[in-house]
Structure formats: structure tokens, C-alpha cells
Specification:
By secondary structure, this protein is of the alpha+beta class. It folds into two domains: about 160 residues, Aminotransferase class 4, branched-chain amino acid transferase, N-terminal domain (D-amino Acid Aminotransferase, Chain A, domain 1); about 170 residues, D-amino Acid Aminotransferase, Chain A, domain 2 (Alpha-Beta Barrel). It is built from seven helices and 18 strands. Strands 1, 2, 3, 4, 5, 6, 7, 8 and 18 form a nine-stranded mixed β-sheet that branches. Strands 9, 10, 11, 12, 13, 14, 15, 16 and 17 form a nine-stranded mixed β-sheet that branches. Strand 2 and strand 3 form a beta hairpin. Bound molecules: 2-OXO-4-methylpentanoic acid.
Length: about 350
């Protein structure tokens, strides 16, 4: 793929790296590429970060034909820049696209676009502990047409954002609200995809939780409202009686890159990890009898987010001693250790630029 590069003539001032939040600062350039039926993907270009001009009738605005990915580039302690399992994101984006009848984006082109853009923007990769360059690939349907049908044209773009912690709590434990009214996704729907609509559907639960004084939502399955799906914008894991359990991938759950990495890592440490259905009733019992030793969310943006407090059916339970669990801390240190080049990457997960 030939990528044309137009450099900005007005580079932006870099942000204060010490006060970086999540997702509100963007770098100088972005990658863009167009698709038309019959012609395929064309016009790969890196251009100054800019507004996108689209016909108001574009499918994306009416029927939410949009998918995205979330990944990060890390500036290592050894000065090397690393990506973490980027092909998993490329493949997941194609699975999301297939569900929404969007065209496949070739994995090799995804990797080339990503590496070329990150290399060009390497001065934007923060170097302070717990910071990174968040990468957001997006695909939208652009055909101007009000009928509900498969779009004939698309735009793929990648934007970059230097970030600090996703949740203001950082690694500090969060308080979770179990949502039993609204659901995020159902089997057979789009829960396993990273499409904007899933996140739009989650906002009301987040608002309710925040209004009630909680930081995140524990989503239950859409059919029975009984089984655990995800937490906030992350997958969720529980350590019960020494064993780590996590909801199996039912089709309603996002197959997280961090989730997969944590499962591999735990198994490599000799721990028992089981992917299965987990009922709220089981969690309630484990929290009540003290066998729930730890609970944490896993995700690219948040990495590991320990859960310190769970409210189930009117009962408020402190998980463990309410602090950062030993296993959560070890997982955080091990994952970020590999990402920042502090630890040997024995799994072969990182891709150096
Ligand atoms: C991620 O963890 O990368 C996500 O995409 C979650 C959220 C920011 C939507």
C-alpha cells in the first residue's frame, strides 16, 4: 500500500504530560483511506488532524454504521516504542465489520497504516509512568442514502491521543453498581463487536450508576438478567476460592485483548482460570461468605481496574479488604511491565516499531 504523507504546517503545542487525562488531546496527524464498492480501499493518506466533511445523509449518522478499536503505543524504559498484540485488534475490527456488513480492511494494511502513523507521531508518546499513546482506528459508512441498506462507501481513519489513566481512580478500587433494568447487549446482537451503538446503549446505565454514587456498571445478560456480562467498558474477572472465573464469550461480550492476555498470563503462573457463566446469585453468595477474594475489570484503556465494593440486591460488600488485591496488582505490574519494556516479553505479544 502506498501512503501519501502531508505534514502539518502548524504543529500543536504538546500538552502538560503530568496532567494527561483520557482522550481529549489529539496529535498533529491522522491516517485516512476511502472505500467504494467496485473500487475497494484507495487513497491511503496521512494528513494533518482535521475535521471530516460528510453529507448529512451519510449512513453513519442515521443507522450508526460505525466500528472502532482501542489500542496503545508505549514508550519503553529502553527507549523502544511498542505496540501490544495489534493484529488482534485488526482481526477484531474485521469481525465487527462483518457483523455490520462493512468491508474488510486488510490486516497488513492496518499494520502498515498504524506503524507509519505512530512512527511519524512518536514525539507524542508520553514517557511518564502510566501514560501511553492511545490509538483509535474507526470505520464509518459514508453513503448518503436514507434507506436502511448496506452502504456502498466507507471511510477508515486512525487518530492518536496521548493519555493518562482512563478512570480518575487509576488503579484504586472502584465501587460497582449491578444494573438489572437496562441491558447492554444480547446474544445474537452486536455485543461481541466494538460498534458505537453498544456504547451508546450503555450510557443510561452509566448515568444511573453515577447518580447513585457508583463509578461503574456491572452489566447482566440481556436474556435472563441473571448472569454477569461485563463491567463498565471492560471485561470482568473474579477470584473465588483461589480460582479465577470470568464470563465465557457468549456473543454478547467483547472478546478483550487484555482479557485474553490476562487468561494466558494467569495460566502461565499455574493458576486455575475458568471461562463460564457466572450468576449474580453465585457472586452474591461468594461475596457474603467471604470466598470472593478479588474482583477486577480488564481492558486496553483501563488495563486492570480493581473492584473494591460491590452492591448486590441492596447488600453492600467490600471485596477483599477493599484495597488493590494482590493478584490485580501483580497482573497490572506484569502487563504494563511487558508493555513498557521493563519485563521480558515471554509471550511474544509486543511489536516493536
Ligand atoms: C478500550 O479499552 O480501548 C476501549 O475502547 C474502551 C472505551 C474507551 C470505549
Amino acid at each position: 500500500m502506498n501512503i501519501s504523507i502531508t505534514k502539518t504546517t502548524a504543529p500543536k503545542a504538546k500538552p502538560d504530560w503530568h496532567t494527561l487525562k483520557f482522550g481529549n488531546t489529539f496529535t498533529d496527524h491522522m491516517f485516512m483511506m476511502d472505500y467504494e464498492e467496485g473500487r475497494g480501499w484507495h487513497d491511503a493518506r496521512i494528513v494533518p488532524y482535521q475535521n471530516i466533511s460528510l453529507d448529512p445523509a451519510s449512513c453513519v449518522f442515521h443507522y450508526a454504521v460505525e466500528i472502532f478499536e482501542g489500542m496503545k503505543a508505549y514508550y519503553g524504559v529502553d527507549g523502544k516504542i511498542r505496540l501490544f498484540r495489534p493484529e488482534m485488534n485488526a482481526n477484531r475490527m474485521n469481525r465487527s465489520g462483518a457483523r455490520l456488513c462493512m468491508p474488510e480492511f486488510p490486516v497488513a494494511d492496518f499494520m502498515q497504516a498504524l506503524k507509519t502513523l505512530v512512527e511519524l507521531e512518536k514525539d507524542w508518546i508520553p514517557t511518564l509512568p502510566d501514560t501511553s499513546l492511545y490509538i483509535r482506528p474507526v470505520m464509518i459508512a459514508t453513503e448518503p442514502h436514507l434507506g436502511v441498506s448496506i452502504s456502498k462507501s466507507y471511510l477508515f481513519y486512525i487518530m492518536l491521543s496521548p493519555v493518562g489513566a482512563y478512570y480518575p481512580e487509576g488503579l484504586n478500587p472502584v465501587k460497582i453498581f449491578v444494573e438489572d433494568e437496562y441491558v447492554r447487549a444480547v446474544k445474537g446482537g452486536t455485543g461481541f463487536t466494538k460498534c458505537g451503538g453498544n456504547y451508546a446503549a450503555s450510557l443510561i446505565g452509566q448515568k444511573k450508576a453515577h447518580d447513585l454514587g457508583y463509578s461503574q456498571v456491572l452489566w447482566l445478560d440481556g436474556e435472563h438478567h441473571q448472569y454477569i456480562d461485563e463491567v463498565g467498558t471492560m471485561n470482568v474477572m473474579f477470584k473465588i476460592n483461589g480460582e479465577v472465573v470470568t464470563p465465557e464469550l457468549t456473543g454478547a461480550i467483547l472478546p478483550g485483548v487484555t482479557r485474553d492476555s490476562v487468561i494466558h498470563m494467569l495460566k502461565s503462573w499455574g493458576m486455575k482460570v475458568t471461562e463460564r457463566r457466572i450468576s449474580l446469585e453465585e457472586l452474591h453468595r461468594a461475596a457474603a461468605d467471604g470466598s470472593l477474594e478479588e474482583a477486577f475489570g480488564t481492558g486496553t484503556a483501563a488495563v486492570i481496574s480493581p473492584i473494591g465494593n460491590l452492591d448486590i440486591a441492596g447488600h453492600s460488600y467490600t471485596v477483599g479488604d477493599g484495597g488493590i488485591g494482590q493478584l490485580s496488582q501483580k497482573l497490572y505490574d506484569s502487563l504494563t511491565g511487558i508493555q513498557w519494556g521493563k519485563l521480558k516479553d515471554e509471550f511474544g505479544w509486543t511489536v516493536e516499531l
